[in-house]
Amino acid sequence: AFDESADAEATPRGHPPDGGKSRVIDIVDMCQQINKPNHFTSAYDIENLVVRRGLEFVIRVTFNRPFAEGDDFQVEFLIVAAAQHKGTQVVVTFGNRNGGPWTGRILETSGETLMLGVTPTADAVVGKFRTYVAVMVGGGLQRTKRDPSTDLYVLFNAWCQDDAVFVPNDGERREYVLNDTGVIFQGSVGAVSHRNWTYGQFERGILDACIYILDASRMPIYNRGNIIKLVRKGSAMLNSQDDNGVLVGNWSEDFSMGTPPTSWTGSVKILLQYVNTGVPICFAQCWVFAGVFNTFLRCLGIPSRVITNFSSAHDNTGNLKTDLIFKPDGTPDKRHTRDSIWNYHCWNEVFMTRPDLPPGLAGWQVVDATPQETSDGHFRCGPASVSAIKEGLLCHQFDSGFVFAEVNSDVVFQKRDRYGTLSPFRVDKTHIGQAIYTKAVGSPAPMDITITYKHPEGSADDSRTMARAEEYGCERDHSELPQTQLSVAISCHLGQDVNLALEFQNQGEYPRSVQAHLSGSVVFYTGITASQFKDQSFSVTVTPYQSERRQQSPDSPYMPHLGAQLCLHFVVTGQADDQSVSAIKVVNLQTPSLTMTVSGTPQVQQRMYVTVSFTNPFNFPLHNVHVAMEGPGLMSDRTRNYSVINSQSSFSWTEEFTPRLDGPRCLVAQLNSSNLSEVSGHVDVIISP
Fold it and tell me: Catalytic residues per the record (predicted)?
């Protein structure tokens, strides 16, 4: 039993202490030096013991007299949800007396001191427990007073075979649970870029922040050991869309009321600011949602990783068709195009069992905190089985149909006549979900995991998957389009300017005169146009069985249009009698890097220095420059601002730090300005104990 009053100092109910007796229990020692290495929790910057469920930990209890065989005592663990003033109590007994589900044993007796072993169940509730020791004295129960130093955190356990998040491979456990830095891939197919991200799940205050998020969600205590319910609740709480959650999404260019998404170096600052203010943090886009969600998951012991899907369909009609609409003259009809193709979209995967699904559908599951569609009334997504998505088994919960469309939609090019009637003129079944990447285990390199989501395009297995998906209600395109003898392709060379080559090919026996149109825009990574800098119509004649190549360059410079966007989007369309052609090209611009160097003795608790330097290589000044850097286990978040950095001007910034953790560590820096973003740098350092 437990006290459910509003008193924050809730304690277990029991008999009153034996008033006249002296205190029976002198010391309760949580044996952190023994337990933390055994539970892989030494990295947590926290005063209390952190353990993983399903694995024994030890407690040393000292009484005021030698322990006798018949002495009756128990250890009690109480978890209380701060927002609800409700909780649950676990009683651990020793000897022959029956207790709760957690098991206890006496490991060693030495005079007044007992060494006790306690094993939480592999499905125990995850969170922060208070610890009490109670002894039967003269017919009454004497219990230790509340002592914050004996509080205990219990996490999921990827090392325990009976835990729902068990991962068999040790290298994967270390990557997906213990690695506190990572790489998030961005850009586009053929021009993949990346950003280093500080997860920082072991930094001071982060574990309490993750528990605060669960409390703020009002998630019942008894559900917090259930991995499916917990990640589903976390997916909803990481965005602020309908529950006052952690992050506010913003896909505009106006970040004046908060921090631009490109300025964040990691999750730590975001989570600490949220827990300290209780107010959603501005602003995030998909990689920020995925990075912070990854911190939340790994901090609680859940194996997780960030995924990037290149050419990701965001389909507003809920079918397997992404409709791109064009006007009668071949120019893009942005007003009537509702669907969009994101250059990339980031989400998370969590490794877990799925007892609610048929065999074979456990393992990696998609969870996504970016608010896109509601699921059971909240903006969240998953967990959706990756294996189920690959096989088109879209009847299974949760949100597998939505993720399936993100990686498998057909792109349908529709022409809209003057009466508003749409007629398809081209279907591309291979553009969406061209590549799906995550960080490789033990390496910053990308690992292509496309094959885990989909069979090879056009294979017999792929056809079976698509047919099965349609049986479960996914609507595909079945337009009967005539074979075209005309095609067009776009290639690009990046120098001081963007130089395009348009190649029209004619496979027919007659010459073709093509009325063509080229559109060039600066776009958000979501595919939405920020500004247009090229809009040109032209004609080209292609002789039979030949190709005709046309060079193009922008009419006006694109750099003034960039702002926070570093992506150019070109669309060419053409009409020749009864035949239509089209092609899309996405160009990601490369930015310069920050230079980072470290000096000093690379050893725990020894003074070190890091220097960040940068020279503006552009022929225009950078305004309102904000530079941030941090390194988990090394240095907390530091920032510096510069009002302007003129063309060819430089800055150099040095900070002192003292490493807290040994092993391979990483420092990350990010530069953001009002007219250029995505300038980053990192430096790796190995710290000796």
Answer: 286, 345, 368
pLDDT (tens digit per residue) in 4-26: 333 445 555 554 444 434 568 88
Looking at the structure, do residues 412 and 540 belong to the same domain, yes or no?
Answer: no
Long-range contacts formed by 556-559: CB under 8 A, 24+ apart: 557/497, 557/533, 558/498, 558/520, 558/522, 558/533, 559/618, 559/620
What are the residue numbers of the active site? Answer: 286, 345, 368
For the beta sheet containing 304-314, the strands, ordered from the edge strand earlier in sequence to the opposite edge, are 381-385, 363-368, 340-352, 304-314, 435-439, 446-448
Spatial separation of the C-alpha atoms in residues 551 and 491, rounded to whole Å: 10
**Would you place residue 3 in the very low, low, confident or very high pLDDT band (cuts 50, 70, 90)?**
very low
Determine the Cα–Cα distance for residues 341 and 338; give it in Å rounded to an integer.
10
Is residue 365 in a domain?
yes
Residue 473 has what pLDDT?
82
Residue 239 to residue 470: CA distance in whole angstroms: 31
> Of 537, 554, 588, which one is at a domain's C-terminal end?
588
Amino acid in the structure at residue 506: N
In degrees and rounded to multiples of 5, residue 136 shows phi and psi of: -75, 120
367, 250: one domain: yes
The single-letter code of the amino acid at 128 is K
| Cα 360 from chain centroid (whole Å) | 25
Cα(635)–Cα(683) distance, rounded to whole angstroms? Answer: 13
**Torsion sign (Cα): 657, 659, 660, 666:** positive
Contact assessment for residue 383 and residue 398, using Cβ atoms and an 8 Å cutoff: yes
Compute the distance between CA of residue 180 and CA of residue 199 in angstroms, rounded to an integer. 5
Rounded Cα distance between 458 and 92, Å, is 58
Counts of helices then strands in the chain (DSSP H, E): 11, 39
CA angle 153, 157, 160 (to 5 degrees): 135
Q: Into how many domains does the chain fold?
A: 4
**What single letter denotes the amino acid at residue 653?**
W
At 230-287, the pLDDT tens digits run 999 999 999 998 889 999 999 888 899 999 999 999 999 999 999 999 999 999 999 9
Beta strands 113-119 and 410-416: pairing type? unpaired
Helix axes 268-277 and 206-216, enclosed angle (nearest 10): 50
- Output 320-323 pairs: Cβ under 8 A, ≥24 positions apart: 320/404, 320/405, 320/408, 320/409, 320/410, 320/469, 320/474, 320/475, 320/476, 320/477, 321/409, 321/410, 321/412, 321/475, 321/476, 321/477, 322/409, 322/410, 322/411, 322/412, 322/432, 323/412, 323/414, 323/422
Q: How confident is the model at residue 371 (pLDDT cuts 50, 70, 90)?
A: confident
Spatial separation of the C-alpha atoms in residues 121 and 128, rounded to whole Å:
15
In a domain, 662, yes or no: yes
Supply the pLDDT for residue 638.
Answer: 97
Q: Is residue 583 a contact partner of residue 490, using CB atoms and an 8 Å limit?
A: yes
Answer yes or no: is 513 within a domain: yes
Q: Which of 100, 127, 155 is the last residue before a domain boundary?
A: 155
pLDDT 10s digits, 567-597 = 888 889 888 887 888 888 888 877 889 999 9
Range of the domain at 662: 595-687
Mean pLDDT of all residues in 297-319: 88
CATH number, residue 410? 3.90.260.10
Query: Does 2 map to a domain?
Result: no
